[in-house]
Every structure is written in structure tokens, then in C-alpha cells.
Amino acid sequence: MDYTLVQKEIQFALHNSKDPQQLFDLVYSLRPYDISEVMKGLSPEDQIDLISKLPIPTAAETLEYLEPEMQYHILRHLKDSVASPLLKQISSDAVVDMLLAIHPLQAQRLLDLLPEDYRDKINQLMTYPEYTAGSLMTVDYISARAHWNGEQALQHIRKVGHEAEIISYIYVTDIRGELVGICSLKEIILASPDTRLGDIATKDIISVPADMEQEEVANILSRYDFYALPVVDHQNRLIGIITVDDVVDVIQEEATEDFQKMGGSSPLSEPYFKTSIWELFRKRILWLLVLFIGGAYTANVLEKFSDTLSKIVELSFFIPLLTGTGGNTASQIVTTLVRALGMGEVKFQDLFRVIRKELLTGILLGLSLGMIMYLRAMMMGVNTNIGWVVSISILVIVLWSSLVSAVLPLLLHRLRVDPAVVSNPLITTLVDGTGLIIYFTTAKLLLHL
Amino acid sequence: MDYTLVQKEIQFALHNSKDPQQLFDLVYSLRPYDISEVMKGLSPEDQIDLISKLPIPTAAETLEYLEPEMQYHILRHLKDSVASPLLKQISSDAVVDMLLAIHPLQAQRLLDLLPEDYRDKINQLMTYPEYTAGSLMTVDYISARAHWNGEQALQHIRKVGHEAEIISYIYVTDIRGELVGICSLKEIILASPDTRLGDIATKDIISVPADMEQEEVANILSRYDFYALPVVDHQNRLIGIITVDDVVDVIQEEATEDFQKMGGSSPLSEPYFKTSIWELFRKRILWLLVLFIGGAYTANVLEKFSDTLSKIVELSFFIPLLTGTGGNTASQIVTTLVRALGMGEVKFQDLFRVIRKELLTGILLGLSLGMIMYLRAMMMGVNTNIGWVVSISILVIVLWSSLVSAVLPLLLHRLRVDPAVVSNPLITTLVDGTGLIIYFTTAKLLLHL
């Protein structure tokens, strides 16, 4: 969608028109996401003007798509009588994200706009650490009592539904706030109006604690195809819900992060074009240096074998091919395992199954590549013995790479380190030097050097 | 969750108990996903027995979590009077997935169980190619007319809602089936019962064509935080909807595939432990061979420079470090760009911006690494001139790797090839040989060999 034209029209309507209908018509056909995209191109004054002229629910949703600084700037410059209901309408997880991103004093100013009980809730939400269930949840859910019937529940939804983020589920709590059942709105509507919620609610509830890691939350929600998940405290009291749209964002973000880590750079916190060259440099140089230092010993290995090398210079021809193949095998295994660990398919307890599987596959791969390596060496017209050296080396290198790449990700996961730090470049660097040692040791043994 | 105990109890209830209540109590506390996990450990006879004793909606949802072969086996062995309503209750996208996975003759047998109009719909759905919007959509949505009021809409939902996959949105169509508006159930419930749907429905609809790629569908749905997206034909007639749970699966699958591709192996179609060693071998050897052939020319390059090498054997010490660093830089860039292309953040039109950004970052990285490389060479006590050769080479290699890795993913995306085929191993292999040429050419020029 191209926003240039509609942006011009909106600017015109804001500046020149005395007829509010004109602006209304323009904005009416846009979704909050689209309005937020248009907003990004407007002057600060126009941004504030536009938000103040939107219906509160639309304005709130539009604000949710903007960056925290812009959200704060707009809210700060609206009259309190506008800012206060607007802030209250924004879903609580978005409010928390904004408040945590801006300066604490600025956050306090905004908090003062909220009624006291809601302010307490927000303050409570702000205590949950990033990347946990607590940080994803919203308190804008609908709860009900087990003795209500369907008709009463619908009346309740009509009363409080405006503020709820999702009305697909109604959470049944007891007098102590404990979560005792979940009804879907579908069940309520399909049942007869006088059925008690207690009779249609699912009693065996899947809920998550506030300190669960967001990746695990995403796995649970996607496994059961839920639209929302309840979050409970240690006493099983309902404290919030996590909706599927936030989980979709989590899944996308986590995949992007793992991707960038696997490529051997620290994950970018912004989209590509928003990241400055200096920032790209900073994110990349760190790992390049680690890898450089890790790889620097290859030079010592080669220096140590320089006698062998100067006696048979042909041995050097195969260095990149041998280390390269070892690195390629390692990359294949590491990426597969890192992803499988992330998706919860593989656990540390599976270590020996994984090693067995990878070594057996490694034997097949090593034998195939060994044969081809022999043919390649013969094609170059080198001595038959060198042919044997390279083909036996490649088998041993593939097996060694398989073992290292099978163990390392699982071990790191066990130690609660993100296994994605074993990036493709890291594992390649690790098996490069050891591959050289295998190669030259084989050469010395077989060629009696 | 450990299913061993409940599985034993269910087996006992199926075999020994005459009291159906016992089985009911056991299954009542389980969700369809959990029942499907229990099913996987049961004998084929018990599977059929259990499914036939579940309420139809639960049985249908449980079946959806099973593999196509198992689904077919169970449906085939149920009485037609049970299988027919059960098959009709399964959501249409799941039915299509199953029918496409089993033998056409088996599929025909199942299709014969369906009423004619529904069979036609399923046959139509089966024509959409894999990985498109059409293949993800279900026809189990709720449509309504613009002149209905809220009360009529709710009555309609009560009547047909049992078969709908999601009731959060009601799709308003005109007499020709054209999609003219969308109401959320929330809006209907919050509005007064006599409000016409036409007055509350969003008219400016975001819909997707049936042939849109699933990755793009996922991007749209996650951008707008929708729970479902309507799919229309070329005449804007509503033909189905795509629900967010299927999109979550798509996002997870696409990320897993891209992950495995980036690691340099063909994506696995099954979870890790379900993939046999032979299958792992097949998925990996293909790319290893491609990479081997791609890398084999490094041996020729080194052979060509063997004169230089035998004159100054120290030059060989730095081969793995130089090619390694080139490969690492390339991996960082390629993973970032492949992900950014997948998320729609970067397009082919941005080519020159990307090249400029990567070359400028490359200069910073190359200069830093060049300095460190010089120090490293000096530490090993090699000739100062060799120090200059290696540090100038690393700068040129980093710049060259940056250029290649900036251009290649964008070019492939433009040519409608998945850019993830430029895996980390592939780009590493590509820049390995060219890195050697850069290195030895620099050596020859600077050392006057």
C-alpha cells in the first residue's frame, strides 16, 4: 500500500478544511495500522491534531503501532481530558512496553493520567522481566462467575467488552480470583441462554506462570491452536492473558534473532534499513573478532606442520576443501539441532540418541565424500598415497564435525545458554583447526613423514 | 505432559469396562491435542474404538492432529454412519490436506462419504497449489447479509456456528457472493440487537487472492493483528477464510525451512527424530556435493599458485584464517538479508542502498580486522612484507565478500528463487576460492614474485 497520496489528503484536511466530515471520510476507510503508517510521515503538530480527532478506540489502536517516543510525545501534548481516556483504552501490554521504553519521569507523568486501580495494575505489570509470559500479557480480559448463565454473561460482555482485547474467551474465576474454568464465546452463544457458565466451562485449564519464557508460551499456544492463554500466579489466581497476535510477533522476532545469531552476528534490534552502518559494524565486529581469535590458531597448526608442508606442497592444495567440507557438515547439523531445540523437539536427555544418529549419518556422508575426494585427487594427478590421505582424512573430519556439532548445541541448551550462539561461522571455525590436525596427522602416519 | 499413565487407563477402560462413564471421565479432562498424543500409542483397533466413542466435535478435532495415513485408517474402519458426520465436522482445510496426502483412490472413498455440495467444495479446494492462500483456507466460515440485524445474525450463528472454524468474524456478502463487509462478533454483541449488519460492518476489506504465497499471507495477517483473513476470487467473491492458527503453523514451518536451508541442507519434512538416518543422509549429501564441486576449484587455485607457495611457505599459514574471515562476513550479511527479504523489509529495488550500506560497513570491518591481522602476523615473527600482504588481503576479501553477499540474495529473490538457497555454507564456499585468488595476487604484486 502506498501512503503518499492519502497522507497529502489528510494533511490538507487537517490544515484547510473546516468540515470535520472530510477527515472522517478519509480516515474511515483506513485501518489503525494504515493510519499509523501515514502518521509517521506527518509533522509532530499534525500527528497530535489527527490523533485528537479520531474516535478513541481507533486512536488507541493507532498509537499501539507507533514507537514509544512518538507515543509519549503525542500523549504528552494532548489535553489531559483526551489523553486520559485514550491511555486507558490502549491495551495494557502496549502501555507497559511504552512506559518501560521511555524515561521513568516521563512514565510517571503518564501514569498520573490513569485512575488509581488501573495505575496499580500497570505498575504491577511493569515488574515482569522482558521475554517472559508476564511481559506479554494484558489485563484487559473478561472474567465471570460460574453461577452466571449465558444471558448474564452476554450482558456483562456488552458492559465491559469495549475495554477487552479479546472476547473470544470468558474466564471463570472464584471468589478468591482463582481461575476455575474457561468458556469460549462460541460455547456461550451456542448454548441455551439459561445454561450456567459452570456447566459449559472447560475445567481442566492450560495456563502459564508469569515467569515462563516467551518462547515456551509460543510453543504451547501454537500446539493447542488457542487464541489466548491465561497467565496465573503461584496461587493459580488469574493475573492476565496472552493473545495470539502478540505470540505471532514473538515467533517472528525469535526466529529473526536466531537467524541473525546463526549467521554469526549479534541480533539487530531494528529492521535492516533502520540500523545505522555504525550499529551494523558494532553488531558484527564482536563476533568476527571472537571468530578471528578462535581461528588464529589454525596458523599455528600449519606452522607446526610446515616441515610436512614444504616436503609435499600438494598437501596444501586440499586444505580449503577439507576444512570447508568439515564446516559444511557441521553447519547442517547445528542449524537443524538449534531449531529443533527451539521448537522443543529435542532435549538434553536425547544426547546419546542424537550422537548415535549423527555419527551413523556421518559414516554414510564421510564414505561418499571420501570416494569423491579420492577421484578428485586422482584427477589432479597427485600421488595415489596422497589420494588415500585426503579421502581417509575427509571421513575422519566428517565424523569429528558430526560429534562436535551434535554435542555442543545440546550442552549449551542444558547450561541455559541460547544454543544459537553456536552459529554457522563459530562451528566452522571450531572444526577448521581440528580438521587440519586430523589431516596432517593422517598424512604423517600414512606417508611415514 | 506425560501421556503414559492416562494411556494405560484409557486402554483399560476400552477393554474391560462396561461402563461408558469411566471412559468419558478420563477423556473429559483432555484436550483434542492431548487425546491425539495418547492415540499415537494405542493399537489400531483401540484407536478406532476410542474415536467412535468420543463426541463428534472432539473426535473431529482429535483427528486433525494425526498424520494423514492414520486419519484415513481410522475413518476407513468406522461405520459409514459414524465416519460421514465425523468427516463433515473436520475443518475443510484439514480434510484437503489429508485427501492430498493419501492415494487418490482412498481419497475418493472418503469423498463418497460426504454430501454432494460439500464434496464439490472440497474438490474445488484440492485444486489450489501447496503453499498458497488457497491451500490454507477453510470454507467453514459464517456469512450473512447486510440487511440482517444483530439479533438475526446471532440466531444464524446459533444455527450454523457448530460447523464454523471461527465465529469471531461474520462475512457480509451480497446476492452474487461478493464480499462487501466484515463484522466482528464483538461489534455485533456490543451494538444494540436491532442494528443492521450493513451499518456496523467494515466496508474497506483486506482480503487476499487464492494464489497468494502463504508467506505473504502470514505477513499481512501478522501486520494487522487479525484473527482471520478472507480469501476471494478474481470477481471478489468470498471463497474461504484463513485462520490465525494455520498462519502460526506457516510461520513456524517457513522459519524452520529457511533455517535448515541456511545451514546448507534441504529442509526436513518431518521433526528431527522422525527423520530416518537414510533420509538425513539424502537431505544433506546433495548440498554437500554441490558445495564440494563448488569448492573443488580452490585446489586448482592453490595448484596454480604452488610456485609462490613453495617459495614462501609462510603464506600458507594464513589461508584458513583469511578464507574463514571472508566466509564469516559473508554469513553475517546473507542471513540478515535473507531474513529481511522473507519479512518483506528489503526488496530488489533497494539493491544499491544495500550495496552501499554493506560496502561502508565492510570498510570499517576490513580496516579493523586488517590491523589485527597485521599484529597477528607480527606475533608469529613473519616478514613485515607478509604482514602487509595479509592485512591488505583481508580488507579486500571483506569488501569482496560484502559485495557478493549483498547482491546474491536480492538477485535470487528477484528471479523468484528462494534466497535461502544462498546458505551459509554456499556463500562461504563461493568466497573461499575468490579469497585465495585475492590473497595470492596481492602477494605476487607486493612481494614482486
Automatic annotation (TrEMBL), chains A, B:
A GO term for molecular function: catalytic activity
Membrane protein topology class: Multi-pass membrane protein
PROSITE patterns membership: CBS, GLY_RADICAL_2
Cell compartments where the protein resides: Cell membrane; Membrane
Domain spans labelled CBS: 201-257
Protein name: Magnesium transporter MgtE
Superkingdom of origin organism: Bacteria
Subunit text: Homodimer.
Gene3D superfamilies: CBS-domain (3.10.580.10), MgtE N-terminal domain-like (1.25.60.10), SLC41 divalent cation transporters, integral membrane domain (1.10.357.20)
Keywords: CBS domain, Cell membrane, Magnesium, Membrane, Metal-binding, Organic radical, Transmembrane, Transmembrane helix, Transport
Predominant cellular place of this UniProt entry's protein: membrane
Segments traversing the membrane: 285-302, 317-338, 359-380, 386-412, 424-447
PANTHER family in alphabetical order: MAGNESIUM TRANSPORTER MGTE
GO cellular component terms, semicolon-separated: plasma membrane
Name of one Pfam family that matches: CBS
